[in-house]
Amino acid sequence: MTTTTPTVLRILDPEAETRAKERTPNPRVPTLDGKVVGILENAVGRSLDLSRLPELIRQRYEVRDIRVIRKPVTSLVAPKEQLERLIKECDVVITATAQ
After folding, report:
1. Residue 56 belongs to what H/E stretch?
2. Which one of 10, 40, 45, 72 counts the least CB within 10 Å of its CB?
């Protein structure tokens, strides 16, 4: 008599766990004049091209400075060091993604 060992089938879920929390957006600043503006670029891929944004901002506003930081990986959250730098150095941060 032959005995059969049951086959174990392991199913993996390829979806990332969502860690987002509902938050109220910060109030908009009335103007960018005199501000340090941070731009967080979403690396490459299908993200929006923000390369002309500093030029467009400078044409419209008298900003104190613009700091552009590019995420190393499009699909992940920006590293903590990058976010802390933006918080420390900028009055306003602009970021965008397109999917």
Report:
1. helix 53-60
2. 10
Express each pLDDT in 17-60 by its tens digit: 666 678 788 888 999 999 999 999 886 655 567 788 999 999 99
Largest distance between two CA atoms of the chain: 87
- Dihedral sign computed on CA atoms, order 43, 27, 99, 18: positive
d(CA 35, CA 37): 6
State how far the Cα of 89 lies from the Cα of 41, in Å rounded to an integer: 16
- The token pair that represents 48 in the structure block: 């929006």
Strands (E), the chain: 36-41, 65-70, 92-95
pTM for the structure as a whole: 0.70
Tokens of residue 83, six digits: 């976010």
Which amino acid is present at 68?
V
44 secondary structure, DSSP code: S
Alpha-carbon distance values, 49 to 38, 39, 41, 42, 59 (Å): 15, 11, 8, 9, 18
